[in-house]
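Task 17 of the worksheet. Students: predict the tertiary structure of the chain below and write it out as structure tokens. Keep your answer in the requested format; marks are given for formatting as well as content.
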Amino acid sequence: MTERVKDGRRTRVTAQLRELRFDAGSLSLNLIATTGRRPSTPIERMGDIDRLRAWCKETGLTVHPDEDLVGLLDALHELRACAYDVTAGYLHRRAPQEDSVRLLNQLARVNPPAPQLEADADSLPATAGSPGLSAPALLSLIARDLITLISDPKQRQQLRECDSEICRMIYLDAAQGRPRKWCSMQRCGNSTKAARHRRHREKTGDLPMA
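Model answer:
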């Protein structure tokens, strides 16, 4: 565990806070989630090549072995910033920066490879093997995912920002009925409720003597 100081306040950075998240509801939102604790004290969760490889593996993206992974990581960080600007802008009713929209549209122009079907050894349908995605194709998939999400009224209405003050992860709420307040009840819901309960007890003086 490490500590970070911002505006005179110490923030504990635990292993859990550095964990990659894959539960935001879409490929582009999972990329945005590679930065934790926005916007107060951002925590980088995909800061090196090993974390990039882990993220690609869990999202089902295979990068071509000849690709420059350092360059790809930098490009993903840039795309992530633009994707966050657009989604947070929608949630907070503000216009995104023109550069964000321009980059997303530019990246989406690349045609990712079409999926191929072949027969396996038993003559059954199987997905054809792929040598991996080029960096432009991978970036295009993510940009297209975000553009599709934002362009779809139903999905757009399902965008949420975690109610936890130390999380604020953006996610898709596909639950029926009452909207979800937290990205995860286990990760943020319980801890937020416990913290609020403790603050209430502190204000009322209803705390046991040490």
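Marker's comment: Residues 5-10 have pLDDT under 50 and may be disordered. The longest helix spans residues 69-91.
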